[in-house]
């Protein structure tokens, strides 16, 4: 049976690397846990590392955080749906916002719950996901600060999440200038300029981060140690916090080319045959994960000689080549994961999750 392992010592290593990186630069930061899909054991591991600020895009996951430690500051990192306002105020201390009508409802509900709700105003910086357009920021803020029960704790932006627009010094300086404009016009302090995510870490390492960017929210680099500019592991970090183990459930030498008339498979794919493969065979193993659990493109075999041939809903076929290399039915085949692959596995009820 396939299972996922989280290695506690490797996670701690990456957390301590980032903690020192931010502490040395006087930057506040929080851990994004949306990858963990509400897994209580895994979230507890993050909190036990010392994280006092947790970011997530699911209110149910923030509820889990509060059940573990009510003193951890919880941040909801997408514009709230109006139908979720009551639970959001209950479980999120801070939320990302870009709509006045939603913030007004947050203010009203915070009053009913006798709370002060903090918000980060998201500003559009080119990736065209959430955010107020820059030319509207001053007018938007003017309407917001008149609302009771709402405290603007920061301005922020998202980059690289939709269209792949990368952070740059110019964009981050521009974000910092919005803070200065707001503070000068309204004589109110905004503590955070939340322009930092995993993709911004390389700028920090190169000393290219504008000093005004004083808040980071970090997920992917914590779990995978990945420099999203170079797509290589950051020197000094671990890329193997998670490991997926799958079991071989069949292993035979078979032809490399299918036999019969070809049509679309259930995934809508039609195989393109390499004519050089006619008459050739290889050892093909079936492992016990499939498209229901993960897309093959997000799997990185620990054995570099393994090739992934294809996948159906519940099974994945790997090509071992001309030799079985001591593999047999019942053996485990391990994989590192890319971010979206780990997200799929952690969201699957069919894959056991363990802590090592």
Automatic annotation (TrEMBL):
Which Gene Ontology cellular-component terms appear in the entry?
Answer: cytosol
Q: Any idea where the Alanine racemase N-terminal domain is?
A: 9-225
**Record bears the keyword Phosphoprotein:** no
Q: Which InterPro entries match?
A: Ala_racemase, Ala_racemase_N, PLP-binding_barrel
What cofactors does the UniProt entry give for this protein? Answer: pyridoxal 5'-phosphate
Pfam families under this entry? Ala_racemase_N
MF annotations from Gene Ontology: alanine racemase activity; pyridoxal phosphate binding
Query: Keywords on this record?
Result: Isomerase, Pyridoxal phosphate
Entry protein name? Alanine/ornithine racemase family PLP-dependent enzyme
């Amino acid at each position: 049976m396939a299972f996922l392992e989280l290695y506690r010592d490797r996670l701690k290593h990456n957390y301590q690397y980032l903690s020192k990186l931010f502490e040395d630069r006087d930057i506040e930061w929080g851990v994004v846990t949306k990858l963990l899909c509400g897994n209580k054991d895994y979230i507890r591991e993050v909190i036990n590392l010392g994280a006092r600020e947790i970011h997530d895009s699911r209110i149910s996951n923030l509820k889990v955080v509060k059940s573990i430690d009510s003193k951890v500051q919880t941040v909801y990192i997408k514009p709230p749906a109006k139908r979720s306002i009551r639970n959001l105020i209950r479980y999120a201390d801070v939320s990302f916002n870009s709509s006045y009508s939603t913030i007004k409802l947050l203010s009203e509900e915070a009053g009913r719950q006798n709370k002060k709700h903090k918000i980060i105003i998201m500003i559009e910086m080119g990736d065209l996901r959430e955010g107020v357009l820059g030319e509207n920021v001053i007018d938007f803020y003017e309407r917001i600060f008149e609302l009771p029960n709402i405290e603007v704790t920061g301005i922020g932006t998202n980059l690289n999440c939709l269209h792949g627009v990368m952070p740059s010094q110019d964009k981050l300086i521009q974000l910092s200038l919005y803070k200065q404009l707001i503070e000068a016009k309204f004589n109110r302090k905004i503590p955070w300029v939340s322009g930092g995510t995993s993709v911004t870490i390389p700028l920090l390492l190169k000393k290219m981060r504008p000093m005004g960017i004083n808040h980071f929210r970090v997920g992917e680099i914590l779990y995978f140690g990945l420099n999203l500019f170079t797509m290589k592991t950051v020197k000094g970090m671990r890329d193997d916090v998670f490991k997926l183990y799958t079991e071989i459930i069949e292993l035979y030498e078979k032809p490399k080319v299918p036999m019969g008339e070809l049509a679309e498979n259930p995934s809508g794919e039609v195989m393109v045959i390499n004519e050089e493969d006619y008459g050739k065979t290889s050892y093909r193993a079936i492992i016990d994960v499939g498209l229901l659990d993960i897309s093959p493109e997000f799997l990185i075999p620990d054995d570099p000689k393994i090739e992934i041939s294809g996948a159906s809903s519940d099974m994945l076929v790997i090509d071992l080549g001309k030799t079985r290399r001591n593999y047999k039915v019942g053996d485990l085949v391990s994989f590192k994961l890319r971010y979206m692959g780990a997200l799929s596995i952690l969201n699957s009820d069919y894959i056991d999750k363990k802590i090592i």
